[in-house]
Amino acid sequence: MLIALLAVLGVDLAVVVFVAVVVYGRKRWVKRQPGAFRGAIRVESGAVDGLRPKWSRGYGRWVRDILVWTKAPFLFRNVLIPADALNQQRPARDNEVKRLGDRPTVIRLTAADAFAEVAASEDDAALLLGPYHRTSNPDARHPGAPNST
What we know:
Helices cover 21% and strands 33% of the residues. The protein is built from 3 helices and 7 strands, in the order ααβββββββα. It has a 7-stranded antiparallel sheet.
């Protein structure tokens, strides 16, 4: 039906196929970036250029302390969020975020004078935390030493 509508409007099928291939290729590239996770993001308070107060889907990845958010559906636009601190980590409330599994995790980031919430599936919780994910060392006397047991 969609192809018929586009044909009536005069859009060439080759153009539609080309756009579909480019979008699929971009999605594959974004998903294969180191540390990439699928999730949703919103601005809780303040203003972050390129983000809204409503949950929007996309892919995120951390580059040092900067969250690089690639916005869905076409994944052509990146939003850079320099995070100052992680304020909160919590499980998502019922029906707060959809399509991220049964128990998504939500974190609250401070970025300059704004607060942003980022959600990801429970499986991607370690990727979601990024630079704020610290592994505990059982031997606190020797930080960075491998476990001797």
